[in-house]
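Hi,

I'm pasting everything inline rather than attaching a file, because the server keeps stripping attachments. The sequence lines come first, and each chain or strand is labelled.
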Amino acid sequence: MSKVNVNKVVVAYSGGLDTSVIIPWLKENYDCEVVAFVADVGQGEEELQGIEEKAKASGASSCYIADLKEEMVADYIFPTLKTGACYEGKYLLGTSMARPIIAKAQVEVARKVGADALCHGCTGKGNDQIRFEGAFAALAPDLHVIAPWREWDLVSREECLDYLAERNIPCTASLTKIYSRDANAWHISTEGGVLEETWNAPNDDCWAWTVSPEQAPDQAETVTIKVENGEVTEVNGEKLTPYDALVNLNEKGVKHGIGRIDIVENRLVGMKSRGCYETPGGTIIMEALRAVEQLVLDKAAFEFREELGIKASHLVYDGRWFTPLCRSILAASDELAKDVNGEVVIKLYKGQATVIQKRSDNSLYSEEFATFGEDEVYDQSHAGGFIRLYSLSSRIRALNELKK
Amino acid sequence: MSKVNVNKVVVAYSGGLDTSVIIPWLKENYDCEVVAFVADVGQGEEELQGIEEKAKASGASSCYIADLKEEMVADYIFPTLKTGACYEGKYLLGTSMARPIIAKAQVEVARKVGADALCHGCTGKGNDQIRFEGAFAALAPDLHVIAPWREWDLVSREECLDYLAERNIPCTASLTKIYSRDANAWHISTEGGVLEETWNAPNDDCWAWTVSPEQAPDQAETVTIKVENGEVTEVNGEKLTPYDALVNLNEKGVKHGIGRIDIVENRLVGMKSRGCYETPGGTIIMEALRAVEQLVLDKAAFEFREELGIKASHLVYDGRWFTPLCRSILAASDELAKDVNGEVVIKLYKGQATVIQKRSDNSLYSEEFATFGEDEVYDQSHAGGFIRLYSLSSRIRALNELKK
Amino acid sequence: MSKVNVNKVVVAYSGGLDTSVIIPWLKENYDCEVVAFVADVGQGEEELQGIEEKAKASGASSCYIADLKEEMVADYIFPTLKTGACYEGKYLLGTSMARPIIAKAQVEVARKVGADALCHGCTGKGNDQIRFEGAFAALAPDLHVIAPWREWDLVSREECLDYLAERNIPCTASLTKIYSRDANAWHISTEGGVLEETWNAPNDDCWAWTVSPEQAPDQAETVTIKVENGEVTEVNGEKLTPYDALVNLNEKGVKHGIGRIDIVENRLVGMKSRGCYETPGGTIIMEALRAVEQLVLDKAAFEFREELGIKASHLVYDGRWFTPLCRSILAASDELAKDVNGEVVIKLYKGQATVIQKRSDNSLYSEEFATFGEDEVYDQSHAGGFIRLYSLSSRIRALNELKK
Amino acid sequence: MSKVNVNKVVVAYSGGLDTSVIIPWLKENYDCEVVAFVADVGQGEEELQGIEEKAKASGASSCYIADLKEEMVADYIFPTLKTGACYEGKYLLGTSMARPIIAKAQVEVARKVGADALCHGCTGKGNDQIRFEGAFAALAPDLHVIAPWREWDLVSREECLDYLAERNIPCTASLTKIYSRDANAWHISTEGGVLEETWNAPNDDCWAWTVSPEQAPDQAETVTIKVENGEVTEVNGEKLTPYDALVNLNEKGVKHGIGRIDIVENRLVGMKSRGCYETPGGTIIMEALRAVEQLVLDKAAFEFREELGIKASHLVYDGRWFTPLCRSILAASDELAKDVNGEVVIKLYKGQATVIQKRSDNSLYSEEFATFGEDEVYDQSHAGGFIRLYSLSSRIRALNELKK
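And the predicted assembly:
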C-alpha cells in the first residue's frame, strides 16, 4: 500500500510509549505536521500531568486537551446504561463507551486546525482500531486515517524505546510492562501477563483500583441512589452531576472491592481475549437502574429492554455508536427510561453491591394486588379465563393429537 | 359457572394446609374419589415424612409418590440452563422449572388410575396455576381441571384450619405463617411478610437455606467443575449424576451464602410480586456454564445464546414448557451446547461464586492469536481491510451528507 | 358476576345491528343514560348517513361523531408502516390500527359528557374486544367497561332483530348476512360464510372493494410516489395529506385488483380465524416504503427494521398501542425512518404492485462502488482482510477439530 | 503479500471466461498443478456440455464433475425454507444457498487429490468470495485459498480474452456481455447493464427464464402441493424427489411469470447492489409452506419462526452456513417444521402465486371455535378474565398516573 499524501494529522495522544513514538514516526514517514490531541475522560491526573510539554517534546506542533468527562458520562455512558448493555453477560463496556467521544472530539480538533488526516495508536489485533475508525468513517469520511501499528515494523517495547532514544526524545516509559491497561472515569481494564493463559487465576496485581473482597471492610456500608429517567441524579441525598455521581460511587466501590470481572470475550476481529475489568461505581449504578426497572417496567417492556441491552452491547462494543441503528436502539431505550424513576438503597459488602430497598412513584408493584386477599383491581376468577385462552392453542393441538 | 361432573380426581398434594383442605373439599363439592399425588422434587425429607398417611387421613383413596429428582435436574433444569435463562435478569426459575415435570407425572397417575380430572392447590393470583394448567392443556386436554382457590370462599389460614377441624381431620399446620415458601432441589423461594413492602430490606429470617455473607467463612473455598455438552458431570474430580452434583454444590453454596436474590418480578398475570430466592448450587452451576461458553462460543453464537436465554426465561416462567416453541428453543440451545465442554475453578467467598480458572479443548481463545506478536493465523494488515468494509456503509452515508 | 352501577355510558356505535341492540339493552340492564359515539375512520358515507338519528331512535340521549380520518392515517397508520409491520407475514393490520384511535376518541367523549362507563360491541371470540379494552385500561382505568356480547344471551341475528322489533326500534338490517365485514380508509375485511372452511377458495363475493386480477385492466398503469421521513407525501407529483394520499392510491389499487389477501391467522385469544382482506392503497404504500428502505438502510439497520416490524405487528394486532413497549418500538422505527426519503415508480397490473424505479438522495447505492472497476472508496484488496477476520472464529474452531 | 507455495490447487470451474483464465494464470503464477472442479447445481446442460474437455484445454490436469442437484435441494434449500428466510424481505437466496454445497464438494475433491490449495473465481466486491472462503475456513482451514480476482491485474473482458488468445487457449466467450448472471436449479440472477442505475426500470432482456406477466397465459392454472415436515413431497398428486418437485414447479412458474424480483440489497461487504432475480418454482414453494404454517403454528411459534427467518436470511446470505449458529437456527426451525404437514392449492396467474385452498391434519383452525356460536372449548366469558389480566399492567400504570 503506497502511503497517502498528508499535510497535517491529528493524533490521539495519551502520553504513553506508543503514541510518543507515533509523533516522530508520522513526521518522518508522512512528512507532515503532527497535532496532538489529548482526551481527558477521567483516566487520572497522573497520565495528564505535563502531557502538553511531552507531546511537543516528541515533535507535535501543538497539543489540544479536551475535558470530556461530564459529556462522556452524560451522553455516552448514561444512554448506554438505559439499554442495560453488558457485553457477553459481564463486561460493562468501559473502554468501548469512551472511544466514540474521543474520536468525535479528535475530529473536531482536526476540523479546527484544518488537518487532512487522523491517527490513532491502537494495535491491529484489537477492537479499538475499529471503534476509532468506525467513528472516523461516520464523522469525517473525507479525512485520511493512519494506523501506525498496522504499518510499521516496530514489534516490541524495546524497539519503541530505541526508536525514541535514537531521536533523543525523552521518555520515562519502562522497558518492561507486565500488563496492558486502559482507564477512564468508568473503568480500568487489565490484559496480558499471567492473564494470557485462561487456566491461570488473576494475580493480586491484576487489579489496579479495587481492594480484594478479602481486604474490604468487615462492616457493610449502604448507599442511597436516586434515579430519574434512567439516570443517577443523587447519591445519599446529594444532587450530583453525572460525572460527580460516578466519582462518588467509584470511591465507595473501590473501598468495598465492587465491580471486578475476569472474562474471556469475543473481539470483533474474530479472536478471543482475556481481560480483568474493574468498574466499581458503574457496577453499583447498574444494580440501581435494574432495581428501579424491576418496579416500573411491565413484563413485555422488560423483555424488550433486555433485548435492547444485548443489541446495544454489541453495537457499542463493535464501535457502531455513530450509526442509524445505534441511534434507533438508543431512542427505544430512552423511551422506556422515561418511567425509570425511583430510589434504591444498596448494600456494599466484600465485593458485592446488593439492592436491599427500592421504591418508585411509577411502581407497578402493589402490595394490595400481590397478596392473597380480595381487591378491586384483580378478581381471582379472571385467572380461569385468562389461563383457558392463554393455553387454548396447546389444548387444540393436543386435542388434534388425541384424535389421530 | 356450574360445576362439572367428576368421578375421580388426582390432586397434586404437598401435605401442607392448602392441599389438606382440598381433599375433603373436592369430595364434598364434586362428590368424587380423590387420589393424592406427591412429587418428590427434592423439597426435603421433612415435607415427605408420613405424607401418604396424611393424605389418606384427609380422605384420599390412595396416594402416589413419584421420585422425580434426577429426571427434573437432567431433563428440565439442565436443558433450561443451556439456554442461559435467567428471568428478568435475576431469577433462576426454581419454581418454574419444577412445575412441568410435576404436572406431567400427575397426568401419568391420572391415566393410570383412570381419573377424569386434575386438581392443583395454586392460588388465583400466581404463576403456578398457569404452569400446571398449561401443562395439563398440552398433555391431557380431555381431563377436567379443578382449581379450588379460584372456586371456594376460604380466604385465610384460620378458615382453612377451621374447615379441617370441623371435619376432624388432623393437621399440624400453625395458625400463622409469616412467609409463603416453595422448595425443591434447585431452590427455595420466600414471599410475603416484611417483603410485601419493597422499601423494606429482607430480614434475616427471609432466608431459609443460606447463611448470610457476613456469617459465611472468612476463608474462601474453591471447587472444580467439569462441564460436558453444557451439563455438569463432575465436581472436584468426582463423577456425579445431575441431581447429586446439584446436592453437592448446594451444600457448598449454602455454607458460603451463595445464590441469594431479592427481586420484584412481573408475574404472567399482569401484576408484580416481590420474592427472595436462594439457589446456592444453581448459582455456582450457572457461573460454570457461562464461563465455559466464554471459551467456546463465537461472537454470533454467544449473542444468539443470550437471546435464547431471554426467550426461554419467559417460556419457562410462563408455563409454556410443553409447546412447540419451547421445544424449538431447546433444540437450538442444545445444538450450541455441543461445544460447551471444559473445566472451571470457582472461588466461593462471602456470597460470591467467582470463576478464577477455565479451560476447554474447544476453546477458541489462543494466547498466540490474542497477544501482540506475529502469528500464522492473524495478519494485522488484514484488519485494515476488515475495518474499511465493516464501516463502508457509514462512510458512504457520511459522504452523502457531505455532498448535501 | 353482579352488574356494576353505571350512570352514563358511552358506546362505540356503528349503526349496525349489534350496536343498535346494545343501546336499549344497556338502558334496560344498567338503567343508565347511553351516549352514542361514532368514529369516522373512512368506513364510507353509506354507514354514516343518518347515523345520529338512528342512534337517537335506538335510545341514545345524544350522539357524537368524530372525524378521525386524517389523524388515523397520520398518527396511527404511518407510524406503524415505518416499522414494516405485517402480521404473520401477510396482514396489513387494517382493523387493528383503527381500534386504538376509536377507543381514544371514545374516552375523550366520555370525559366530556362525564360518563362513568364505556361500552363496545365486539364479540367475545375476537381480537377487537382486547384492542378496545386494552386502550380503555391505559386511558381510562377508572371507567367501567361493558361488553354486552360477553354478557347477554342473544346469540343470533334473528334474536337481535326480534329484540329490536319487540321494542319498536326501527332497523333496516337484514335477517341473513353472509359475511362479517369491517371497513375503514385503509382496508376492508371479510370473514364467515364460505371462508369458514379453509379448503374452500374465496368466492367472488368475498371481495368487497377490489376487482379480481382477471377483471383488472389489461394495460398496466404506473404511479409515482414521493416518500419523506418514511411517509407518503406526494402521488404523481401532487402534494397530498396522508388521508388523501391513501384515498388516491386506494382508487388505483381497487381498479387493478391490488392488495387482496386470504389468510388463516392466530387471534390473540388462542384460536385461529380465516379472513379475506383488501388493502389496495396500503399495499402500494408498503411497496413504496420498502423500496426506499432498500436504498437508504444499511444491512444492520435493515435487519433491525425487520425485527421491529415483527414486534410491532404483534403489538398492534394485540391491542397494545398505548403501552410503553409500543411507544419504544415506534421511537426506534421513527429514528430509522429519518433517512427514508426518496421517490419510486410503481407498476400496477392485474393484482400486483411492482416497484420498477427508485431513487433517493440518501441512497447508499452507488453505481461506482457496485460495479467491477476500481474506485476511491472500495479497494478490492480490502476484501481479503475482511474475509479473513470475518471467518476467523470458524478457522480457529476448525483448526481445533483438526488437532483432535 | 508474497505468494504462498502451492503444489496442487482445486479450482471451482464454471467453463466461463473468468475461470478459463484462472487455470493458466494459476499455473503461471503459482507453478502448480490445477485440478478443475465443476458443480452441477442445475445451472443447465448448456453450461455443462463439453466442460471437461474445455477445462483440460485450458490446462487443468483433470476435471471432476459432481452432481449436487438433489443434495442441494434436500439438504441446503429445504432446511433454509423451513426458517422462512427471505433476505431483506425479498430475495430468496438462490445464489447464497448454492455456495456452501459447492465449496463443500470442492473441499472433498481437494482431499481426494491431495491438493494443498483451493481457488474460486469470485470478484473482490461481491458476497460469493465470502461464502466460498467462509466454507473453506470451516471445512479446510489447513488449505491455502487463492482468489485471483483480488490478486491479478486483469480488469476487463477484453484483457481476459487477450490473455487466453496469447496462450492459444480456445474460448468462445464474447467480447461484450451486458449482464452478469448466476443460475442454479433454484434461481437465476441478473446484474449489471441498465440495472446499474436504480432509476431505470428493468428491460425485458433483464429476465432470463420467466415470461412477463403480460405475456403469461390469460387463463389461470392451479397446482396442488403436498407438504410434509416442512418439505414439498408431492405436486398434483405425484410423489417427487425434492429436485424433481422444484423442476416441475419451475416449469409452471416460468410459464406464468412467477417469481420475478428486482431489488437493491445490502452486500456483506458494505455496499449495495441491484439485481433482478427469478425464482419461479421457489416462489410457489414458499407460498405453499407459509400457507401450511398459517394452519399449524400457534401465535408464539409463528412469531419465532419469523425471527428465525430473518436471522437465517442473514446467515445464509453472509456465507455462515457451516457455523454453530447456523446449525442452531436450523435445529430450531426443523423442530417447528415437524408440525408443518398439509396440502395447498395455488393459483398461478400473470405473475402471482396465490394460495386459495389449504388444509392440514395438524390444523389449529377449527370452524367450530372460530365462529360465533357456543362450543365446548371456548367459553366467551373466559375472554373477560383474559383481557383483564392481559391489560392489568396498563391499568395499574394508568391508575398511578391518575394519582399523580
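Chain D is about 45% helix and 20% strand.

If the labels don't parse on your end, tell me and I'll reformat.
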